[in-house]
Specification:
Blueprint (H helix, E strand, L loop, with lengths): L8 H18 L6 E4 L2 E5 L5 H7 L18 H18 L6 E9 L2 E10 L2 H4 L1 E8 L8 H16 L4 E7 L3 H9 L3 E9 L4 E10 H7 L5 E4 L19
Parallel strand pairs: 5-6
Antiparallel strand pairs: 1-2, 1-9, 2-3, 3-4, 4-5, 6-8, 7-8
Bound molecules: coenzyme A (COA).
Coenzyme A binds next to β5, α5 and α6.
């Protein structure tokens, strides 16, 4: 009898639960959850990557500076970048500079990604964001809900002072989400796109404008307490007995 065959499914499940528990203890970000209206967000995990690479829409723009590999077509290049973006953000995480991608679920199905990131966060208190949705669920407010979710995390729980974002001038949906949430114009810039210069519209939302909007009340964040050190914040003190 082989060593493996003596393990019942229940034993295997208990081991899997134990590994999962250990993972959450070691890297508590995986226990973070955000709900806003009809969407639920949880950090992307490594086992999500094949599916996310397969459903990412063609109009989601990766970093144009990413070098291609010889012999790989555009689809393979974009697939590789989904994996590499994930590993880069995990491997380079620090409390001052971080990037967290959330899987967005709608009606129980993974429909996109909403990311939140910051550089020199304790000093600047500023977050940036990025997102994509599969085409079939666009135009019904999911883009607004998923951005609201991460803004609430940033402003209501991590003490952010401002959120910035940018999009091409002709990206009506991305700019529409930002405008809907109260971002104000913050200038333009010229950027290399890989196929010439593009003009980006920059927008900024302040903590005051966020608080006045009352949108944080639509959102529920759970599993954050153990993640606070990951964002440079002290863990919550235990409630007095
Ligand atoms: C950006 C994206 C996530 C937005 O999600 P969405 O579900 O389509 O957006 P919503 O339905 O929440 O709409 C948000 C707002 O934009 C408006 N809007 C949507 N599409 C628009 C368009 N093509 N032109 C102008 N306004 C548009 C909506 O009317 C809505 O505004 P309102 O609430 O004031 O009416 C989604 O369109 C997407 O994945 N785009 C491709 C990837 C991308 O460009 N990501 C952003 C990179 S910067």
């Amino acid at each position: 009898m082989s060593h493996m065959s003596s393990r019942t499914p229940a034993t295997v499940r208990r081991m899997t639960d134990a590994v999962h528990g250990r993972l959450l203890a070691d890297w508590p970000l995986f226990g973070l959850r955000i709900r806003c209206d009809a969407v639920s967000l949880r950090p992307v995990r490594e086992d999500d990557l094949p599916h996310l690479a397969a459903i990412q829409p063609d109009d989601y723009e990766h970093d144009p500076r990413a070098e291609g590999l010889p012999g790989l077509n555009d689809g393979q290049h974009r697939t590789r970048l989904v994996y590499q973006d994930y590993w880069r953000s995990m491997a380079t995480w620090s409390p001052s500079s971080w990037s967290l991608a959330f899987l967005v679920e709608y009606q129980g199905t993974a429909v996109g990604v909403q990311s939140l990131e910051a550089e020199h966060f304790p000093a600047l208190g500023t977050v940036d964001s990025g997102s994509w949705l599969v085409a079939s669920v666009r135009g019904r407010g999911i883009g607004v809900a998923m951005r609201t979710a991460v803004l609430s995390l940033a402003f209501d729980h991590l003490g952010a002072l401002a959120a910035v974002t940018s999009a091409r001038r002709d990206n009506g949906a991305s700019l529409g989400v930002s405008k809907r949430l109260g971002y104000r114009d913050n200038g333009v810039s010229l950027n290399a796109s890989g196929s010439g210069l593009v003009e980006l519209t920059h927008l900024r939302l302040t903590k005051d404008a966020w608080q006045v909007s009352g949108r944080g009340q639509q959102t529920e964040v759970t599993g954050l307490a153990k993640c606070l050190p990951w964002f440079g914040l002290s863990p919550l003190k235990a409630a007095p007995h």
